[in-house]
Write a structure and sequence with these properties.
36% of the residues lie in helices and 10% in strands. The protein has 386 residues and is α/β, with parallel strands linked by helices. The chain has one domain: 3-Layer(aba) Sandwich (Arginase, Chain A), CATH 3.40.800. The two termini are 25 Å apart.
């Protein structure tokens, strides 16, 4: 498989997992230890939760079936929930029920004929929507509406002051979905729908969408590239699927400057992400001063992920999460809603999500003794040859 151009993983089947195993053996012992220490709850006491963090999870999301060998499988969610349940702070998360996203909210981002086509293809048992990598089943339309609605439910609770932030553990992901086209495992663009919802339902003026999925969020960028009220910032492997996301793509017309792309080469490690955060992402956020922060939280840039070639540690996701929370505290009253995008290693994804939610809840302070990063410290996993 050509890792710089092909659809992310559909053609691989079980071969993708074999590659993941070989890549795990190439990682440095230090990096692996850091990742484990950053997210494993069994070796440390959990401090008191300092933020009210909502968790939107509905087992209906397990019913979306894109195909037997498809990497975007329901086990991503079950493995993650099993991992989260082992954390002492898990019981303190606030469960948030998701309702199906209303048609008017879908139509704020997607064309009505696309929505109708998606429903027809799914309910008729079609094998895929628009392109072969977006495999669907009869229940996929209903599940995709729940995935989109989960973010809205979290936003309502945040805006009501009932929670400080939240995480949506839902599928299918969304950031590749275009206005009239399904792409890259995605049916509806959950983050874009949520950004418009916050503006139109809750009256927020400026919304940040930070996307750290290893694949560029073409659909999200295109939804807002002419809109100066939504800042889209992305760190992603480039050149790679879907082919968009060059540094020169900065928006169009009135939206020029409201798109910030940080393309990363294959083999990029923590230090390059830290550099991009400090030099480009954080200054852009401080200039924009968002009223709310949305995260397209893909965890497929992890070193163990089988679908890409970036080599992040679990600790890097913790570090980025903390920087985002600090920025949200400065500008957005701490309002953060994080939506799961990619992440296809059943070992790495649960660890990364646990580390991320631990940061959202403010329950991570004792993790410092286990070898994770102090706020503001440099990252230990550089980009040098080993």
């Amino acid at each position: 498989m050509n890792r710089t151009a092909a659809v992310p993983g559909v053609a691989d089947g079980n071969g993708a997992e074999a590659r993941a195993g070989s890549r795990r053996s190439e990682r440095s012992p230090g990096a692996g230890a850091q990742g484990q220490a950053g997210a494993t709850g069994a070796t440390r006491r959990a401090p008191a939760v300092r933020r009210r963090t909502g968790l939107a999870y509905d087992p209906i999301c397990l019913r979306h079936d894109p195909g037997r060998t498809h990497p975007e499988r329901s086990a991503r969610l079950t493995a993650t929930m099993e991992r989260l349940a082992r954390e002492p702070w898990f019981a303190e998360l606030v469960p948030v029920a998701a309702a199906p996203c209303p048609a008017e909210r879908l139509e704020a981002v997607h064309a009505p004929d696309y929505i109708a086509r998606a429903e027809e293809v799914c309910r008729s048992g079609g094998p895929y929507l628009d392109v072969p990598d977006v495999g669907v089943s009869r229940e996929s339309f209903d599940v995709a509406r729940i995935a989109a609605g989960a973010g809205l439910a979290l936003a309502d609770r945040v805006m009501a002051g009932e929670i400080d932030n939240g995480f949506s553990l839902a599928r299918p992901p969304g950031h590749h979905a275009e206005r009239s086209l399904a792409l890259g495992f995605c049916v509806f663009n959950n983050a874009a729908i949520l950004a418009r919802y916050l503006q139109r339902r809750h009256g927020l003026e400026k919304v940040l969408i930070l996307d750290w999925d290893v694949h560029h969020g073409n659909g999200t960028q295109h939804a807002f590239e002419e809109d100066p009220t939504v800042l889209y910032a992305s760190l992603h492997q480039y050149p790679f699927y879907p082919g968009t996301g060059a540094a020169s793509e900065e928006g169009i017309g009135r939206g020029t400057g409201a798109t910030v792309n940080c393309p990363m080469p294959a083999g990029a490690r923590d230090a390059l992400y830290e550099e991009a955060f400090r030099a480009r992402i954080l200054p852009a956020i401080d200039r924009f001063k968002p009223d709310a922060v949305l995260l397209s939280a893909g965890f497929d840039a992890h070193a163990e992920d089988p679908l890409a070639a970036v080599e992040l540690s679990t600790g890097c996701y913790r570090w980025m999460s903390e920087r985002v929370l600090e920025a949200a505290d400065r500008h957005a009253g701490g309002r953060v809603v994080s939506l799961l995008e990619g992440g296809y290693s059943l070992d790495a994804l649960p660890e990364c999500v646990a580390a991320h939610i631990e940061c959202l809840a403010g329950a991570d302070r004792d993790a410092r003794a286990a070898g994770t990063l102090e706020a503001g410290d440099g990252l230990t996993k550089g980009n040098e040859e080993e």
